[in-house]
Every structure is written in C-alpha cells, then in structure tokens.
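Q: Here's a chain of 320 amino acids. Please give me its 3D structure as tokens.
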Amino acid sequence: MTRARWQAVIGVEVLAVVVVFSAGQPVPPAPAPAPVEQPANGLVVLLTDYGSGDQYPGILKGAVLTANPDARVIDATHDLPNFDVWSASYLLSLVAKEWPPGTTFVVVVDPGVGSSRKRIAVETLPDGKRYVGPDNGVFTEVMAAAERVEVHELTNPALARPGAESSTFHGRDWFGPVGGHLAGGVKIEDVGPALSEVVGLPLAPAQPDGATVRGAIRYADHYGNLLTNLPERLLGEAGGKQGCRLAVTVAGKTREMPWVKTYSDVPEGRVLVTINSSGCAEIAVNKANAAEALGAKPGMRVELTVVGSGDGQPVGAAAP
C-alpha cells in the first residue's frame, strides 16, 4: 500500500480543509461557491469484515445507538473479505452511491487496529455523506468520486465510548459512537482537527490502446464473477459491442470469449464477458466460478481486446 498525497486548500467561506485530488502536479482549484450543506438524515450504514456469526456486529450497532438512540442503523454487510482494504474501498463506492444524501457510513476493515494509523471521518461534498473508519485507504474511491471532501481525525474524547479504550476494537470505542453522533447532527469539524493528508490506494485507471483496453480486476464476488474497472464506453471506443468476440488476458493466459447480454446467453460452464450493473466489464462463467477457472483474483491486471464481430456464441478456445 502506498500513501497518496492529496493537496489541501482552505476555503474562504468554509473554515475546513477541502481535499483536492490531482493525478500529476498540484493544480489550484477554481473558486467555488460555498456548498449547500446536506443535513445528516439519521441513517447509519455499517460495512465491516466482522462476519455475521460473531458478537462484533451487535456490539457495533449498540455503540451507534448508545451515542444516538434515534439513529436508524442498517447492516449493508459484515462479510467484506477479511483484512482486504482494496476490495472494501471498491464495494463501499458501489454501496454508498445508492444511499440518499446525508447518510453516514461506518466502515471497519482495519488490519492496523491499535497501531499508529489514524482514525478519521470524511465528508463528501456536495452530497453531505459522512464516512467513519480507519485511515488505511478504505475511503479512496468515495473520495476520488467526490467534488470536494473534508477529512478530520477522530480525537474528541467526548464523542467516543466512555470508559477504557480497547487496542483491538476501535469500531466499538470510536467508529460506532462517532458515526452515531454525526448521524444526529454533530458537525464533522467537532470530531477533531482537519487533515490535509490521508492514506490512499494506488488505483490504476482503465487505459485504451487501439482495440485493447487495459485495467484491473477490482473484485471477485461470491459467485466467482470477476468485476473489472473497464467501462463499457471504452470497449465501445475500441470497436467492441455486444455480440463481438474479445480476447481476455488475465493471470498470464489469453482466452477468447463472447461479449453477451447476460450469463444464460452461453451454455453452462462457458466463459463470457458481460456489462454488469455498474456499467463495467465482468468476466464470468455461466453457473460456475470464473475466479477459480481462470486463476484470477482482485488486483490482477486484465486486458480485453476486440478480435471479431461474431454472433455472441461462445468460442471457448484458449489462445497460446
């Protein structure tokens, strides 16, 4: 994991640090009017790797409700892959965009709990969504998608759980209580000092190259489907369309497969590419596990090359 430095500027109207993302040299942001603040809506959405069978999700919910008995606490999932910050950042970005403005998210995938890593709260603008969790890159993609963000370190003991602090359960002691308070209307600047630098994941954007589009496997879901960061738009610009054949290179091997509308467009056990509900290419096997069949996993590089128009029927042959 690397540390991405995001430049910070102090707004004239808003006395808080606004974090601005830039791919190369820092570029001063254009002046912008003060945003219309989205009030907290009382919703607290939980995403963790605690698992569904242990006591930790119940304790976390109790910590939120002790801080704010009026909060509406929703379990998005407690089955994020263990310790996998990369996958958690991606899945949070998919979940968060479907929730209304003003929602608060408590996110705990925290292999560095008890270490020197910071505890942070993030507010994205202009939607006013708040995020609470560890400073380990888990908020990389929701921050990158926002127009502006504010980031503060959690240091205010008045917002933490009363009593002794555990070195292994910051979800209970800090993230849950602060999430409850934010959902109840506490301002993000009240949680602690503003930060101008946070940990970010080294995400590589999809890159077109003639008839090829290069990117990464972002996630393997529990079906074994491989979700990529390759948008349908770039595949179209490469000359592809539904019904064409694609040469898919991943895990050191290249295979031809059809671009189809849905899984059942090919016989059971055959590989395919489809566009998923997020608008990106997904590599799958009808009624089987593509991650196992192809030996692929999140973080691997992937290439899709348009090789023919075809009729959408499976071709199945593996290229040398």
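Q: Can you summarize the key feature?
A: The domain at 207-319 is CATH 2.40.30.90 (Elongation Factor Tu (Ef-tu); domain 3).
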